[in-house]
């Protein structure tokens, strides 16, 4: 599991196909969640029209942008180290400009410019369309900052350029921001109010990806189940919505159906689901469409009702179990993963045992596990003392990671002897004679290449496994090809 956590934190310099008329060079790196990676594709699209091609070579960049994450203190430290590195290069190449994008930009605002003097440009997640103006300011010798959050911006009209893509899987963002206010979480402050994107523009993007040969899309949002389109705007603006608006509204189940029907050969995934908002009709739509993958990322954060309440997670342990039971009933082979935080303020040994017993009940396929990190400005920081000692947080984290590993192994073993459909994504990291892809449940599958190609749907018979990977051999193309 540590490996997965590491991967989530990894930065990645990203490149797109070069336009010959462009002469300026952009080095763009992303840290944090999938939404940041997706946003960087929007930024690259905006800047491609401003004469920038992407480069993977920091030394030759005219503009360096880092898309940042504030979710835990460690994520911010990682970005600070990168900023030091950029500034070292800038001393050799003084023409180079450095900009911070995303959640840290939003959280620290002009502090980067005034106190730290380590960047030229600070741009929050809703201000990317202003980048051309901001870059002009910087080029004229002024520092530039725009961290205004928007209630409407969804970038629905921007066609993202795909950065370092395998040409097979792509992210499509469907909502921005979050209204949930989990007490530990900085996202509502850095990404602003929740808003949904026009379903028509979502389907157009998916159709365009299909036409370019993509085979799998992941619909992205902080809380996809609260997707709601009434013709635009914030949900609260429509408290008195007319019956017509209500009748024509699209919720997440409706959107899933719309997308699945538009591209029946495309695999559809989505992330992230919040247990309090996930409804039966979403599970029913998943069960009814074979191209919607049987996989749900369903963060629980804690197994203790007392802690869930303090986290402002608006469901109980029992309600979570009911949801899991419904998923298992309607989609018996559904892959389920989680996020869990250990050491939230006041967490006792008993609360921790509740988390372990919840994990025993669900037997998740995999998960992302974190020690609580107090974030400035959050409700938890203002109201609760960060009182669980670091070594206890770490010990509890180790216990849940170990238990998850046991469950992962147990779940992957269940596939031995079975044949699963795999979409080939890339060469296996460990062997250039093997392909790597995922089954519908999102478990990685590796198998000998033979004559198959990236982007093929292949039936693979599973012969062996580790806790995280299935190992098998292809037995032919799947009928989805
Ligand atoms: N709904 C979002 C959640 C983003 S944060 C999504 O799309 O996934 C991802 C995970 O980071 C959360 O589910 C939570 O488990 C963890 N996290 C958030 N704030 C944290 C904090 N202050 N300390 C430790 N982990 C945190
Ligand atoms: Fe954060 Fe909770 Fe939203 S974890 S992103 S406030 S659903």
From TrEMBL:
Subunit structure: Monomer.
Entry protein name: tRNA-2-methylthio-N(6)-dimethylallyladenosine synthase
Catalysis performed (reactions): N(6)-dimethylallyladenosine(37) in tRNA + (sulfur carrier)-SH + AH2 + 2 S-adenosyl-L-methionine = 2-methylsulfanyl-N(6)-dimethylallyladenosine(37) in tRNA + (sulfur carrier)-H + 5'-deoxyadenosine + L-methionine + A + S-adenosyl-L-homocysteine + 2 H(+)
Family named by the database record: Belongs to the methylthiotransferase family. MiaB subfamily.
Lineage: Bacteria, Pseudomonadati, Bacteroidota, Flavobacteriia, Flavobacteriales
Cofactor note: Binds 2 [4Fe-4S] clusters. One cluster is coordinated with 3 cysteines and an exchangeable S-adenosyl-L-methionine.
PANTHER family per record: CDK5 REGULATORY SUBUNIT-ASSOCIATED PROTEIN 1, MITOCHONDRIAL TRNA METHYLTHIOTRANSFERASE CDK5RAP1
CDD domains named among the record's database cross-references: Radical_SAM
Domain TRAM: 413-476
Main location: cytoplasm
Keywords assigned: 4Fe-4S, Cytoplasm, Iron, Iron-sulfur, Metal-binding, S-adenosyl-L-methionine, Transferase, tRNA processing
Natural source organism: Christiangramia crocea
Example of a GO cellular component annotation carried by this entry: cytosol
Localization, UniProt: Cytoplasm
Enzyme class: transferase
């Amino acid at each position: 599991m540590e490996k997965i956590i590491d991967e989530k934190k990894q930065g990645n310099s990203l490149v797109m196909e070069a336009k010959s008329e462009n002469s300026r060079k952009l080095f763009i790196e992303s840290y944090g969640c999938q939404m940041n990676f997706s946003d960087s594709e929007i930024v690259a699209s905006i800047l491609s029209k401003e004469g920038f091609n992407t480069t993977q070579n920091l030394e030759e960049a005219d503009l360096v942008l880092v898309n940042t994450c504030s979710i835990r203190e460690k994520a911010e430290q990682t970005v600070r180290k990168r900023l030091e590195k950029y500034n070292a290069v800038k001393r050799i190449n003084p023409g180079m400009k450095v900009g911070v994008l995303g959640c840290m930009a939003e959280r620290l605002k002009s502090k980067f410019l005034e106190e730290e003097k380590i960047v030229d440009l600070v741009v929050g997640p809703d201000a990317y369309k202003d980048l051309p103006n901001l870059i002009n300011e910087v080029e004229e010798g002024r520092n530039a900052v725009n961290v205004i959050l928007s209630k409407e911006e969804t970038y629905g009209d921007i066609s993202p350029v795909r950065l370092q893509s395998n040409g097979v899987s792509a992210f499509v963002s469907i909502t921005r921001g979050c209204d949930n206010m989990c007490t530990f979480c900085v996202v509502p402050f850095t990404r602003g109010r929740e808003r949904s994107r026009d379903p028509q523009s979502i389907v157009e993007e998916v159709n365009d990806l299909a036409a370019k040969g993509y085979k799998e899309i992941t619909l992205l949002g902080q809380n996809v189940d609260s997707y709601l389109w009434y013709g635009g705007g914030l949900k609260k603006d429509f408290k008195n919505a007319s019956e017509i608006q209500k009748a024509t509204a699209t919720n997440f189940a409706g959107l899933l159906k719309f997308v699945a029907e538009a591209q029946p050969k495309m695999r559809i995934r989505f992330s992230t689901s919040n247990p309090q908002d996930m409804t039966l009709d979403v599970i029913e739509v998943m069960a009814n469409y074979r191209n919607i993958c049987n996989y749900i990322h369903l963060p629980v954060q804690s197994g203790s009702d007392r802690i869930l309440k303090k986290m402002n997670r608006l469901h109980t342990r029992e309600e979570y179990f009911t949801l899991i039971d419904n998923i298992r009933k309607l989609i018996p082979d559904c892959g389920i993963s989680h996020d869990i935080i250990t050491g939230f303020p006041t967490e006792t040994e008993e609360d921790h045992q509740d988390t372990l017993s919840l994990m025993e009940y669900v037997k998740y396929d995999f998960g992302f596990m974190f020690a609580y990190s107090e974030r400035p400005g959050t409700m938890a920081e203002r109201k609760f003392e960060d009182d669980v000692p670091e070594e206890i947080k770490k010990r509890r984290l180790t216990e849940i990671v170990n238990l998850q590993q046991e469950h992962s192994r147990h779940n992957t073993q269940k596939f031995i002897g079975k044949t699963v459909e795999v979409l080939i994504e890339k060469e296996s990291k460990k062997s250039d004679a093997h392909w790597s892809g995922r089954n519908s449940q999102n478990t990685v599958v590796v198998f000998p290449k033979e004559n198959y190609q990236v982007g093929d749907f292949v039936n693979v018979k599973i012969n062996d496994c580790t806790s995280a990977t299935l190992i098998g051999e292809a037995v032919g193309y799947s009928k989805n090809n």
